[in-house]
Structure formats: structure tokens, C-alpha cells
Backbone:
């Protein structure tokens, strides 16, 4: 499928002068730069994007780009409804999925389920470093897929610090944490709800949960095996050799008590059952009558609500723990992208992407994957995914084809790009934070130097896989 | 739970310290007295009888240091070095009559307990009116007095070794109420820490760690085949008062505690007042 320039559908029918489009493009570039320098300017994502959403909305209103008339006289179910102009641009389904699943995970983690699994796997390793690396690696991938990358990294990273200290293997901590950080982004590819770019792109493309899993799973397995193999070689993590060391490690690891985090066995069992039911329901959402109309966001929020019943009197504690920075970031980001759409900035970027899309079915997706990875390595992968999803969604041939390799190029690129630099994804940032917490030195350049071989191999595998399955 | 710190806390709590049993050897015992040689021999017989169920006659070689064999602390240390015993048995305030006042262990013991790595068993002073009564019946109930309990394997090892077959070993941990209240008062003045959560959980955590290790020790001793009953006790209170009460109630025949602290030359902060003030019960200082 070769794309010709100028076929991207415009979200707005009105004409916009090139000068105004470039002005808004400048605002977008500034916002992306600020997000890339988030750590340097000591500002939260939500504040950065919030400020730019104010600027974008103000300029959008100033240049008469925003559809005030449309949102002022909406007819829904026979009722006239008016709403602020920045509301319809927000993808509330995505917000509901993120809010619901993070609440669900937070309450379920109180049951001790995830820590139980983590400690059980630690004991299963018998304290052998290589076995531990493999088990923690697999656990990172599965937790990243089922929970979210950041929570997975927090759970596995904190356990790694404690267990390696207990096993007197703290010298291997850097290797473990780095490999786990890199695997969060690989595991983040496994399901439709594993990472935010997956949710945004998958939803825009209309990819079903099961289709997503079937397509992504083989790659995730291959990339995990290769990453673990590289990690064991590059960080010299091997099996224990002497019988004495094996017995000593086994004794040390047997001191772990997997039941420590379980407050109530009943709630533990309930949490385990609900986790499986949640994953099953998410996977089956499009097939379930009634639920398929309400969508994934409803499913996530409903499961969160059911879990909260256990803590009904202290539910406010969980509300406090919600990542409001992330949620406000999304709301503001959608508002900014909506304004950019009206200012035809997305059309402009889409036109620039045409040479890439015009490379053909093999080179095109490969180039888009690499370009997406490069872009998401230096800035947040979420705006990138949201923007590219909008642009690709504006191309009729792609909007009607969820199997198009271009969608997958964006998904793979935006996820794996996070492995090139420590700021490329939230989970690698958490991994570096834990590394620093344990007093290990790892600079930005140091991370890139260590991580780049993994990232190159993972991207090469991604390109090869995409071409093979196209 | 959503932060590294929260999960780290759960995993740290899950990484429990377990007790691994080892049997200490008491092949060579040195009794130090400030009596004449003939009196020392009589006293040795009394002490041997007192410990007959623990320091078995066919497995233990006894030696005695009497009054004439040492004068100064230096002399005593030299003699101990010479004998190289597995355990020292003596009493407080050697070569002094200040044993009548509960203010010190005496210069010899103050130095001995800190300089030598050999455990020192301090008996009630032989000049006490009730001395023969106190040593009349072999110890049956032994109490290990812990600082933290968690990780104090040596304490359990020695305490179990001094518990005769069929006897009772009480693994005790008393969290000092005054100290805890001071910390909680300070926490109440820190806005970033939830005072209610701290009050609810801090004590429980402290006691749980002690109980967890005690339970693991109980299991370890059972697996080692020691025919003793092990009880675990962890509570909030005043150490000196609570231990005194237990001793007065006749529940304890011998106390075992650590006398050394890694970061100080003086005796262990908790052991000193107990060793000085609880004078009617034998105390094994490690």
C-alpha cells in the first residue's frame, strides 16, 4: 500500500493559513522539548502539558479555529447539551481505562498477590543468580503486560534490591535492574492494555485485544529470550558453581516468606480470581453483549469499583494514590492535539511523513518503526503515539485496516524507543531511580552506552518481525 | 501500594531472618572465685552440682582460679588467656564487698565481660544469705533476654544449651515503652508521617520481627532434637521491671543475654542494668 501525499483527511473543514499552522507547530515543538527536558526544568508532565494546553486553546480561540458553535449546540439522545470546547477532544475512553486499571491494580496489590508471586519466584530460583535473572525477567514481562510498565518495574525492582542484598549478590544489582527496565518495554508490547501507546494506537486502529496479543506475543517471547541472554553475557551473570554456594544461597532464599504481604487469605484469593477475571473480561470485551457497547473503560472502572468494596471505608486512601499527574497529562495532551488538529498541524506532519509512508509496504513500516523509536527515545512516547495515531487514523486506507503494518510500526517504535535513553519511558526512569537509590552510579550517557546494544537488537528484531508478519 | 518504598517494605518484611541451630561446646569450664583454695573446691562442687544436667560430668573439664592466683584485673585476664576456657563461671564484685550494693559488677567482671570473647556466667554472690538455696536446685527455666531477638542466633544457641532436657526456654523480647513513646511523640510532630498509622503499625512491626525469629528458633530447636519446651514472648513494657517480676514469680532460673555491643567499649546498654540489679538469678553474659 503506497501512500500518496495530501490524502490525509482533515479534521476541520475551515482553511488555516500556513503561518498560523507553523505557529501552532512551534507550540507543539516547544511542548515536546519541555517534556524531553522534564527532569531539567523540574516540572511535572501535567503542568508542562497543562500550560501548553492553555496556550494552544487561547491561540485556537484567538484565530477562530475552535468549533465553539458545534459544542454549544450538541444534540445527544434528543437533549441539547453544551460543553466546553476542550472536552470533546479528550479521549475519555483512554482516561477511563488508565484510571480504572490503575485503581484495580492498586487495590489488588493490597491483597498481597503480586508480592506473593514475586517472592514465590525468588524462592523457586534457589538463590542462583542466573535463574533469578531469568525468573525476574519473565516476571517483569508478565507484570508489564498485566499491570503497567511502571508498577511492574516498581515491584520487580524493589524485590531485586532486597533479594540480591539478602543473597550477598549486590554487585549484580546494576545488571539486573537495567535488564528488568529494558524488559518492561518489551512486556509492554504484549497486550492492548499493557502500555498507553498500545491503548491509544490500538483503539484508533480498531485492533481487538486477542488479535493484538496473537500478533505481539511471538515477538515478546523472542525479544525477552534475547535480552536475557545478552544481559547474562554482558553483565556476567551465571550459575553458582560450587555446592557450598548453592546450599548457602538456598538457605538464604528460604528465609523469604511469601505470605508476609497477605493481610487476609480470603482477599488474597479474591484478588487472584479477580485478576484472572479482569484479564479475561478485557480480552473478551468486544465479544460480550452489552459490555462491548460500554467498552474497555467501563470494564476497568467496574473492576476497580468491585475491588474497592473491600476497602469501602478507606477508599479515599486509594484515590490519593492515583497518578493524577498522568491523568491530567492525558487530558491536557488530548486537548493540545485536538487544537493541533484544528490548526492543521497534524496534516502538516502527515505530509512530512509521506516520504516514509511512500517507501512501500516493507521499507515504509520499517522506517516508521525506527523513526518512532528515535523520537520516543528523547521525549514521551505518549504524545508521539497519540499524534501518529491521529495522523494514521486520518488516512482512509489505514483507518479501515487494523492489520496495517504502519500501526504496528508505531506501536513497536513507541514502546521500544523507551529503551534507548533513561528518559525514553517512565519505567526505564523508575529503573534508573532504583539504581541511584542503591547508590550505584549511572549517568544519562552511561545508560545509553549500556542500553544501546539491547535497543538496537530489539529494534532490529522488531523490524524483521514486522516484515516477516506483514 | 504504588511506590518503590512501599513494595520494598513488603519485601524487606518478607525477607525473614531464620535461626540456624548449632550446638556450642563447653568442654573446658573455668570457675573464678575470690575464696581460699579449700573453699573454692567446696564451691566448685556446689556449682558442678548446680549445672550437672547441663555441663555433663563426663564431657566437661573443670578448673578453678582461687583468691591467691590473681590480684589485679590484668592478672585475671592473663590467667583466663592461659586456661582458654569455653565458658567462665564466677560471681559479681570479686575481691570486694561491694556486692552488697546493687551498683556494679565489680572491676574484674566489668573488664572481663568486655575483653574476653568467652561467655561469662555470673552466679549470685556466695556470701548472700540465700546463696546455697539459690544454687540448691538446678536451673529448669531459662530465659533469653534479647535486644532485638531478630537475628540473635548466638543468644538462642547458648540459652538452649543451658536449658536442661525437659526444661523450658523462654525467648523473650520486651520493647521498651519509654523509648517507643519518645519516638511516637516525635513522629506526631512530623507532618509528613501519618501519626495514626505509625502508632498502629510501629509496635506491631517491632514485635512481629521478634516473634517471627523466635518462632523460627523454636522450629530450629525442635528439628535439632532438643528435648526442651520453647516459649516465645514479645511485648511492650519496662525491661527491668518486667524481668524482675518474672524472676520474682519464680518463672526464671537463669538469664542469658548479650553483654557486648559492637560500637561501644562499655557493657551492652540493656544488659548492664539487668546484670547489676538482678542479683538473685544466675546470668550468662555473652
Residues:
Amino acid at each position: 500500500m503506497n501512500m500518496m501525499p495530501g490524502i490525509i483527511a482533515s479534521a476541520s473543514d475551515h482553511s488555516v493559513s500556513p503561518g498560523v499552522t507553523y505557529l501552532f507547530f512551534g507550540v507543539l515543538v516547544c511542548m515536546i522539548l519541555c517534556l524531553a527536558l522534564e527532569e531539567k526544568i523540574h516540572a511535572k508532565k501535567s503542568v508542562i502539558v497543562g500550560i501548553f494546553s492553555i496556550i494552544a486553546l487561547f491561540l485556537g480561540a484567538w484565530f477562530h479555529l475552535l468549533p465553539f458553535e458545534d459544542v454549544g449546540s450538541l444534540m445527544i439522545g434528543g437533549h441539547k447539551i453544551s460543553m466546553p470546547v476542550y472536552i470533546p477532544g479528550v479521549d475519555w475512553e483512554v482516561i477511563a481505562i488508565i484510571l480504572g486499571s490503575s485503581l484495580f491494580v492498586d487495590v489488588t496489590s493490597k491483597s498481597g498477590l503480586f508480592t506473593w508471586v514475586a517472592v514465590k519466584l525468588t524462592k523457586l530460583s534457589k538463590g542462583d543468580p542466573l535463574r533469578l535473572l531469568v525468573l525476574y525477567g519473565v516476571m517483569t514481562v508478565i507484570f508489564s503486560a498485566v499491570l503497567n510498565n511502571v508498577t511492574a518495574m516498581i515491584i520487580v525492582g524493589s524485590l531485586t534490591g532486597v533479594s540480591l542484598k539478602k543473597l550477598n549478590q549486590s554487585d549484580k544489582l546494576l545488571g539486573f535492574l537495567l535488564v528488568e527496565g529494558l524488559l518492561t518495554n518489551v512486556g509492554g508490547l504484549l497486550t492492548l492494555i499493557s502500555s498507553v501507546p498500545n491503548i491509544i494506537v490500538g483503539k484508533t486502529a480498531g485492533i481487538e485485544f486477542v488479535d493484538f496479543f496473537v500478533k505481539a506475543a511471538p515477538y515478546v517471547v523472542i525479544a525477552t529470550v534475547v535480552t536475557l541472554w545478552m544481559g547474562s553475557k554482558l553483565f556476567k551473570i551465571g550459575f553458582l558453581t560450587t555446592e557450598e554456594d548453592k546450599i548457602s544461597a538456598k538457605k538464604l532464599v528460604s528465609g523469604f516468606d511469601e505470605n508476609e504481604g497477605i493481610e487476609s487469605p480470603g482477599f488474597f484469593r479474591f484478588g487472584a480470581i479477580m485478576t484472572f477475571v479482569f484479564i479475561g473480561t478485557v480480552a473478551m470485551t468486544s465479544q460480550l453483549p452489552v459490555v462491548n457497547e460500554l467498552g474497555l473503560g467501563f470494564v476497568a472502572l467496574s473492576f476497580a469499583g468491585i475491588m474497592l468494596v473491600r476497602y469501602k471505608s478507606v477508599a479515599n486512601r486509594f484515590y490519593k494514590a492515583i497518578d493524577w499527574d498522568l491523568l491530567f497529562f492525558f487530558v491536557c495532551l488530548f486537548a493540545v492535539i485536538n487544537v493541533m488538529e484544528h490548526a492543521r498541524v497534524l496534516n502538516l506532519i502527515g505530509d512530512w511523513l509521506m516520504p516514509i509512508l511512500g517507501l512501500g509496504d516493507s521499507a515504509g513500516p520499517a522506517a516508521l518503526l525506527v523513526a518512532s523509536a528515535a523520537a520516543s527515545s528523547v521525549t514521551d512516547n505518549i504524545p508521539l503515539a497519540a499524534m501518529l495515531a491521529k495522523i494514521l487514523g486520518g488516512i482512509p486506507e489505514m483507518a479501515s485496516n487494523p492489520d496495517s503494518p504502519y500501526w504496528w510500526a508505531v506501536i513497536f517504535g513507541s514502546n521500544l524507543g523507551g529503551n534507548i535513553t533513561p528518559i525514553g519511558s517512565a519505567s526505564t526512569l523508575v529503573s534508573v531511580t532504583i539504581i541511584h537509590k542503591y547508590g550505584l552510579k549511572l549517568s544519562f550517557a552511561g545508560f545509553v552506552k549500556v542500553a544501546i546494544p539491547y535497543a538496537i537488537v530489539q529494534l532490529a528484531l522488531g523490524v524483521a518481525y514486522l516484515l516477516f508478519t506483514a | 501500594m504504588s511506590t518503590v518504598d512501599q513494595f520494598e517494605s513488603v519485601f524487606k518484611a518478607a525477607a525473614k531472618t531464620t535461626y540456624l541451630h548449632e550446638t556450642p561446646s563447653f568442654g573446658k569450664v573455668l570457675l573464678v572465685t575470690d575464696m581460699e583454695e579449700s573453699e573454692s573446691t567446696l564451691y566448685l562442687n556446689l556449682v558442678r552440682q548446680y549445672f550437672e544436667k547441663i555441663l555433663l560430668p563426663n564431657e566437661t573439664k573443670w578448673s578453678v582460679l582461687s583468691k591467691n592466683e590473681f590480684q589485679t584485673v590484668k592478672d585475671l585476664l592473663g590467667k583466663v588467656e592461659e586456661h582458654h576456657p569455653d565458658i567462665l563461671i564466677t560471681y559479681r564484685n570479686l575481691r570486694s564487698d561491694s556486692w552488697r550494693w546493687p551498683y556494679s559488677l565489680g572491676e574484674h567482671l566489668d573488664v572481663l565481660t568486655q575483653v574476653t570473647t568467652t561467655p561469662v556466667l555470673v552466679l549470685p554472690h556466695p556470701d548472700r544469705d540465700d546463696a546455697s538455696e539459690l544454687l540448691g536446685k538446678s536451673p529448669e527455666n531459662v530465659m533469653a533476654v534479647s535486644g532485638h531477638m531478630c537475628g540473635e542466633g548466638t543468644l538462642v544457641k547458648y540459652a538452649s544449651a543451658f536449658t536442661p532436657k525437659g526444661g523450658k526456654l523462654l525467648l523473650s523480647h520486651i520493647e521498651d515503652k519509654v523509648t517507643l513513646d519518645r519516638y511516637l511523640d516525635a513522629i506526631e510532630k512530623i507532618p509528613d508521617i501519618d501519626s495514626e498509622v505509625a502508632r498502629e503499625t510501629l509496635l506491631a512491626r517491632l514485635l512481629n520481627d521478634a516473634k517471627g525469629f523466635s518462632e523460627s528458633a523454636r522450629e530450629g530447636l525442635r528439628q535439632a532434637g532438643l528435648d526442651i519446651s520453647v516459649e516465645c514472648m514479645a511485648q511492650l513494657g519496662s525491661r527491668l521491671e518486667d524481668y524482675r517480676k518474672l524472676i520474682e514469680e519464680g518463672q526464671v532460673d537463669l538469664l542469658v543475654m548479650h553483654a557486648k555491643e559492637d560500637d561501644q567499649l562499655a557493657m551492652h546498654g540493656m544488659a548492664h542494668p539487668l546484670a547489676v540489679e538482678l542479683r538473685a538469678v544466675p546470668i550468662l553474659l555473652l
Notes: Residues 195-223 of chain B form the longest helix (29 residues). Residues 165 and 227 of chain B are 5 Å apart (CA to CA). The two ends of chain B are 42 Å apart (CA to CA). Chain B touches chain A through 18 residues (CB under 8 Å).
